[in-house]
Write a structure and sequence with these properties.
The complex is a heterodimer of chains A (about 150) and B (about 325). Chain A has about 150 residues and is of the alpha+beta class. Chain A folds into two domains: about 45 residues; about 100 residues, Sandwich (Immunoglobulin-like). In chain A, about 30% of the residues lie in helices and about 35% in strands. Chain A contains one helix and seven strands; from the N terminus they run H-E-E-E-E-E-E-E. Chain A has a four-stranded antiparallel beta sheet, with no helix packed on it. Chain A starts with a helix and ends with a strand. With about 325 residues, chain B is α+β, with helices and mostly antiparallel strands. Chain B has three domains: about 45 residues; about 100 residues, Sandwich (Immunoglobulin-like), CATH 2.60.40.10; about 160 residues, Immunoglobulin-like, CATH 2.60.40. In chain B, the strands form three sheets. In chain B, strands 9, 10, 11, 12, 13, 14, 15, 16, 17, 18, 19 and 20 form a twelve-stranded mixed beta sheet that branches. In chain B, strands 3, 4, 5, 7 and 8 form a five-stranded antiparallel beta sheet that branches. Chain B is elongated, with a radius of gyration of 40 Å. About 5% of the residues of chain B have low confidence. Classes of the chains: A alpha+beta (about 150), B alpha+beta (about 325). At the A-B interface, helix 1 and strand 1 of A face helix 2, strand 3 and strand 4 of B.
Chain lengths: ~150, ~325
């Protein structure tokens, strides 16, 4: 009789332990899955429109004008790539500084919905005139937006 | 063993199986509760994600069906470094559109200007038309430069300002001068009083004009299509004259005048008529004296029942240069 009580108690204790462990694991899963879903949704809502790309030959810099035409705030620029069919990819060594169209630094360093701004990308060499170049903008959320320009 | 215990044991069997039953129930409950929770929660998350996908698709569809058209674009440089950009915007799509930015590019010198239009509230419902006029600064801009412009909508669409029509007309105008005459809008006026035109500004749209003692004036609609996009100013010697092949001595001429909105002709030609690039204006020719008008300077055609050729003789300045152009093409019949 005593052994039966002990075994029952052990079974209950083991069951509770399994329940607690399962709860912990499921919470972790829910947290991870929730974060992944939220990140995917944020990426879906993010959209950048490249309004114009201007190449300044004198200072070997391209200026990329952008509009946050998406449905989410706080779009940060992580990096910018520049390339053409023959040249290698140049990438900004660190996230470029966002400026508004009136040349002031954007304080929160991101583009909210409907906000416009530009980034300057200094290139190591002068681009070839009348060549077609591609610009790839990567946001902090991992979205990629591309545009093209002709270097004058 | 007492009788009652024996009865219980008989009824429930051995007590050694209870732990197994309890453990199994616990495990089943654990699996069921947690599994159900995760299942429904995942279902909810998937629903939220699907909703986000639908919203994104809807935004893409809206962006694709947005259709703003910008035509009749002109780029006038009233002074060096300043560009007056105009265009007619029309929402040819089925959803409303907001214009947020105007870009003007001086392609000749590769300089640009960007203007935020949000404060201008250029919001177009389907079918709406709106004129866009904006003066922008582009250092070094010159009338001879090539300009390009586009507007950006809030959805991120870029709309080019089309100048195709201007180019075609300007090319045509270049062959015959900088000013174009609207042949079909040619009109003449009679007088309501000695210095007031009757039925101004409509006049009488006809190529048959009265003769004898009826004083008349001519109304001609001109459009400045100067390829260099400069303003034309007509001086007091600008005139209309008619020539009768059968009677060369019967030539008559009417000098340009200023007319008020009520049809009253100003006594002096001041300020001179100015026509900006792409501007269309009704110009009135009424006086026999250059630079002034009075009741005695009204003009009538004496000859009757005859045909004559009407010529438009324009003089003045175009930008900083002299301007002179003679436009023929109108024939008149002077009624008996």
């Amino acid at each position: 009789m005593i052994s039966a009580v002990i075994l029952t108690g052990a079974a209950i204790a083991l069951g509770l332990a399994v329940l607690a462990w399962s709860q912990f694991r499921s919470s972790e899963y829910i947290k991870d899955y929730g974060e992944a879903t939220d990140a995917e949704i944020a990426r879906l809502k993010e959209r950048l429109t490249v309004e114009y790309v201007f190449y300044n030959r004198d200072i070997k810099t391209i200026r990329i004008f952008m509009l946050n035409s998406g449905a989410i705030n706080d779009t940060k620029i992580q990096s910018v790539y520049v390339r053409n069919s023959t040249h290698p990819i140049w990438v900004t060594p660190s996230p470029p500084s966002l400026k508004s169209f009136d040349d002031a630094l954007i304080p929160d360093k991101d583009l909210d919905m409907g906000e416009e701004g530009y980034v300057d990308v200094a290139l190591p060499i002068a681009l070839e005139p009348n060549r077609y170049y591609f610009v790839r903008i990567v946001t902090e959320r991992g979205c990629i937006f591309e545009s093209e320009f002709v270097a004058y | 063993m007492s009788r009652s215990l024996l009865h219980i044991k008989t009824r429930f069997g051995s007590s050694k199986g209870i732990s197994t039953v309890v453990g199994t129930v616990f495990l089943v409950l654990t699996v069921f509760v947690i599994g159900t929770n995760i299942f429904f929660w995942t279902l909810t998350q998937n629903t939220i994600y699907n909703q986000a996908v639908k919203e994104r698709n809807q935004q893409d569809v809206n962006r694709l069906i947005e259709n703003v058209i910008a035509t009749n674009a002109t780029f006038v440089v009233p002074s060096p470094g300043r560009v007056n950009a105009t265009a007619d915007l029309m929402n040819a799509g089925s959803i409303s559109a907001q214009i947020v930015t105007l870009w003007v590019l001086d392609a000749t010198q590769q300089k640009y200007n960007v203007t935020d239009l949000r404060a201008s509230n250029i919001n177009l419902n389907p079918g709406d038309r709106q004129s866009l006029t904006m003066i922008v600064d582009i250092p070094g801009a010159d009338p001879a430069n090539v300009f390009n412009a586009w507007v950006v909508t809030a959805r991120g669409n870029k709309v080019n300002l089309e100048t195709l029509q201007t180019i075609i007309i300007a090319n045509l105008a270049q062959g015959i001068g900088s000013m174009a005459l609207d042949f079909y809008a040619f009109r003449y006026f009679t007088y309501e009083t000695s210095t007031k035109l009757a039925n101004y500004p409509n006049g009488i749209n006809s190529f048959n004009v009265p003769s004898g003692g009826t004083s008349i004036a001519f109304g001609i609609i001109l459009t400045n299509l100067d390829p260099s996009k400069q303003t034309i100013i007509l001086n007091k010697y600008s005139q209309v004259w008619v020539y009768f092949p059968q009677a060369p001595g019967q030539t008559r001429l009417w000098y340009v005048v200023n007319v008020g909105s009520n049809g009253n002709i100003a006594s002096s030609y001041s300020p001179p008529v100015s026509i900006a690039f792409k501007e269309t204006k009704l110009i009135v020719f009424a006086s026999s004296a250059a630079g002034s008008f009075s009741s005695s300077s009204r003009v009538s055609i004496l000859r009757s029942d005859d045909a004559c050729a009407l010529n438009l003789l324009l003089l003045g300045t175009i930008g900083t240069r002299d301007y002179g152009q003679n436009i023929p093409f109108v024939s008149l019949y002077v009624m008996p």
